[in-house]
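Late entry, written up from scratch paper. The run itself happened at the end of the previous shift, but nothing got recorded in the book at the time, so transcribing now.
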Amino acid sequence: RTKPLPPEGQKKGKKQKAARAAARGAAYRVVPNFPQVPAALTLGAVSAAATDSRGNLLVFHRGEPPILIFDAAGKLQRSFGDGLFTSAHGLRVDAEDNVWVTDNANHTVLKFSRDGAILLRLGEKNVPGDDASHFNKPADIAFAANGDFYIADGYGNSRVVKFDKAGKFLKAWGQKGTGPGEFNLPHAVQVDAQGRVFVADRENNRIQVFDADGRFLRQFGGFAPFGLFITPDQSLFVADGRANQVLKMTLDGQVLATFGGTGAEPGQLQLPHGITVARDGAVYVTEITGKRLQKFVPVP
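Output as recorded:
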């Protein structure tokens, strides 16, 4: 099991470590019985979640119907996507409330309207590839302020692909490896307020940071980043799928808080995969093995 790297220059005395651990443990608490999943609905592995501008929570799971929309109170409002996916993976909501998803089994990325109409399809269904019009098991999507977007592509290609707002291919970078700019499963991607691209290089146990054109800037790690989310105040949340915990970090990799821990009880995690943070600061974590979504809120 890997551990987060301590901030540069920090001494790791026992008392200091215990105090930090206690502070982290108290940072967030789980909200029980959220969301309210109808008895007739069985969740499969829950891979991703996102919130929209209306405060709704969208959940992507490996079951039917695959995309579930809950209101802020956790009540199911509607669903869509039946029969469209082979393996639910990434889900993000853009600034216009369009819903973007990746299917890492049929090699496609889909863009939906908020009502579930397909607006854009990228990749060729069931045809993997490494050119400008194909993916190989794509994992995640992230958006730049100007509407450009990035695909973490992913399980098969070990690259990041950049498109403009209309879906025109712009560039790709990365190959399999352990060096700067190389990946071993780019599993999640986010863009910060400065336009820098943060890539969860999962099997290399690190996050790599690039400029908007794919030039390597830096890296930090010591954990297994499965899911990433950057908040408007520029905090970085990481779902560590091996340690079964969430890390709240600065953008330079300093750990501010952790929560979770291995187990099936509320507040514990079983393979956390996706993570999103609502405008009110609530953190939503999806679990593959646990087949659930959990809501955590800051402790005052």
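The radius of gyration is 18 Å.
(Scratch paper discarded after transcription.)
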